[in-house]
Amino acid sequence: MKRWTHLAIVTGLVLSAGQALAAQVQGEHPTQDEKNGAAPKNEKNLPVKSGSQPAQINLDYKIGPQDMLRVDVWKEPDISRIVPVRPDGKISLPLLNDVQAGGLTPIGLADVIRDGLKNYITDPQVTVTVSEINSLRVFVTGEVTRPGIYPLLPNMTVLQALTGCGGFTQFASIKKIYVLRQEDGKQVKIPTNYKRLLSAKKPEENIFLKSGDIVVVP
Which of 67, 77, 143, 165 has its CB 3.0 to 4.6 Å from that of 169, i.e. a possible disulfide? Predict the structure, then answer.
């Protein structure tokens, strides 16, 4: 009896391994549709669209001026292209001319473009990808080793911005650093002290930066 039980177990393991290998091999080889250049399909036999934004882009990310966008319209290479977002927040596309992109998510913009193309193309499939984020940035200037424009990372603080600029020159007044920020159309000066930032004696001085902030090291 034990002999038959062991045989059944071994047979089951061999069958499971064979099924796993078959599934792996099937996944490694393209289907006939994919060889012919067709879009991959899911279990409902519908074309599968790629994501509307790369993994590092939050789904709620709002497009801003100077961002670079990749617009892909399936099977329409003359329309698909990489376009910059102009200072007025618009992009230019064939057939549609100017399209408002600023303030929209990539998915929202893809919907707008798709609705506009319906007048010219049957069932257009549109994907929008943010290839470069240039609208979220801060400025570090003054007595630092590498003054310049830096991308605004999520939850970026003034201490992180100062750390990324390569340190201070010998003439820096690290106790008199301040952040210039536009609020309600006015420029606000927010003072901070680098030594206190390091010691964390006043953690409220290590403020979160906003896009467009200027960190000044006198």
Answer: 143
